[in-house]
Design goal:
The chain is of the alpha/beta class. The protein is built from eight helices and six strands.
């Protein structure tokens, strides 16, 4: 299958985990976080010069690849959108028993189903976490392997691909929120520009460094590390030990299509 560069996106469904749900971005009209996918929906209207886009976001924080595959993909298929963005796998890579073959198989099955239903699909190859965090460096080999599988699947099924590997913009602390796992509003904005670029509706300026910043000294960084563990890492470990997902009792923020115009919503 070949990627269509003449595609006009009038309906868009986003599936995945907290990355796509939009955690830690600015708040929108209903008190939920906005996120890069919401920004893309508005950007599609403006950059395609159309009046509106039908948009749904099925993503839920904490979801693993098999859950996205079984819970969200069938719904997305039934909605018959022009475009589906699929982003998952980070939560799986954080688990002790990470199974690359199983994750890649679920990704391929999801993409195959979505493409067979007639939707264009955009997938993400994530960056190298060791470039910005010593604590996350143990994930580097896993993310490299997952990226290779993602790029291969994208080529086989004719997907749009956003590849974050080696992009210096994501090494900047300002692109990440205080939990060091989710994007900041700036990170969500850059990601939305990356998606629009992959769709042929932008340029690669999003890859450039976001500007000079003064890095904190060693002592200040260690103080921040302690605060981070107490506020974010500790509760995350506690949930893992109790087997409680951060997405328990969370519903998709846009489970059915809503109309998006170019205006901020």
């Amino acid at each position: 299958m070949d990627v269509s560069h003449d595609l006009v996106v009038r309906s868009f469904v986003a599936v995945g985990d907290s990355f796509t749900e939009g955690l830690n971005d600015e708040l929108r009209f209903d008190g939920r976080h906005r996120g890069w996918a919401d920004r893309v929906a508005s950007g599609l209207v403006v950059r395609q010069q159309i009046e509106e886009v039908s948009y749904a976001n099925l993503a839920i924080r904490g979801r693993l690849m098999p859950q996205v595959r079984c819970e969200q993909v069938p719904v997305a298929v039934s909605m018959q959108p022009d475009l589906v963005t699929f982003a998952a796998g980070i939560n799986d890579a954080l688990r002790k028993n990470f199974d690359l073959d199983a994750v890649a198989s679920d990704l391929e099955s999801s993409v195959r189903d979505l493409r067979s239903a007639g939707s264009q699909v955009l997938i993400f190859a994530y960056g190298d976490p060791s470039r910005r965090s010593r604590a996350l460096s143990r994930m580097s080999s896993r993310m490299r392997a997952l990226r290779s599988a993602t790029l291969e699947i994208g080529q086989i099924y004719g997907c749009f691909v956003v590849d974050f590997w080696g992009v210096s913009a994501f090494d900047d602390e300002r692109v990440w929120s205080s939990d060091r796992l989710h994007l900041s509003p700036l990170g969500h904005r850059i990601t939305s520009l990356a998606v629009l670029d992959a769709l042929g509706l932008g340029d690669d300026g999003w890859r450039s460094p976001v500007g000079s910043s003064s890095r904190e000294g060693y002592f200040r960084r260690r103080v921040d590390d302690v605060a981070w563990f107490g506020s974010h890492a500790g509760p995350w470990v506690s949930r893992r030990l109790r087997g409680v997902s951060s997405g328990a009792d969370i519903e998709p923020k846009d489970p059915i299509y809503r109309v998006v115009t170019g205006r901020r919503q």
